[in-house]
Amino acid sequence: MERVNTEIIKSFEQLVKTSVKSIVLVPHMNPDGDAMGSVLGLWRVLKNAGFKVQVVSPTKYPEFYHWMDGHDEVIIFSHHPKQSARALAESDLLICMDFNQLSRLGDMKPLVESYEGKKILIDHHPYPGNFTDLTISDITYSSTAELIFSVLQSTELAQYIDRDAATSFFTGIMTDTGSFDFSVSNPNTFEVVAQLTRMGIDQQFIHSKVYDNYSADRMRLMGFCLSNRMVVYPEFHTACMYITLEDQKTFNFKTGDNEGFVNMPLSINGIIFSVLFTEKEKYIKASFRSKGDFAVNEVSEKYFNGGGHRNAAGGELYASLADTMALLESILPEFDERIKRSIK
Fold this sequence. Notes:
It contains twelve helices and twelve strands. It folds into two domains: 6-211, inorganic pyrophosphatase (n-terminal core) (Alpha-Beta Complex), CATH 3.90.1640.10; 216-341, Diaminopimelate Epimerase, Chain A, domain 1, CATH 3.10.310. The chain has helices spanning 6-17, 33-48, 81-89, 109-113, 144-153, 163-176, 188-198, 203-211, 216-228, 245-250, 296-303, 321-341; strands at residues 23-26, 53-57, 75-76, 93-97, 118-123, 134-137, 230-233, 238-243, 273-279, 284-290, 307-308, 312-317.
């Protein structure tokens, strides 16, 4: 482990070792594959090491992650707020994973903000907030799953990484790199995957569980969006897809059904910048992807109250879908030159 300071790793190990009550692991709201892969992988390692450990998720997560070891023991705050609060109250260490701002916790924010025990942040996104006692943050990792695995490998906890934990960590890495299509510029990612493979993971099984586990309604929604909800701006090398509340009702939308949609327009020749807007009851959820050097996190931070990585970011806007689309169209000329510089 070279990229995270040795002293930080020692501090992490010490905080874990001195936990005498229990440890709570928390991902961001609407957790994705990296968030759940990270927390469930670490959950298994800590459980194997003899610690009392609990995962509390701010909201539910897609069903195609429910097969992972430990899923049945996850507490969903939005469904069980009292049980969640009790889990935190009865613990003495809280580990926040795959997010770095309290706003990413939604309605669970006050519970974590007022937590009286020690807090650790483990994340790979830029600009971490200052709300924990120890921060382990490094944007050069492909995923939080890769980061936590690398940290564990430098501690005595490494001996407790079994096949189930390795499977969860691989799920996090695989999903956050788009099946190794992006965010894999550092050789360490493949070195970690090699180590996980030696631990006996079944890559084909994992890939099938995540990507071959969708409903027929989800597939129909995808086809409908590609045919009826995609707008292409060829002069700006940009494409935008959107999903209305009515669309979600029509296709029996479930959490995670739109996962991966934002990547699809990037398959169009000449498209560098892809956007997905998903209508919610009170706001529009925005997802951004790009190729090359075009930094979509700048777009998200400046106009959509969000952030993320250079090629993958997200945010939200409290506006109508029509106004959100109009905003996108109005700002494209501002980023035109930077988008064109990314064309290879």
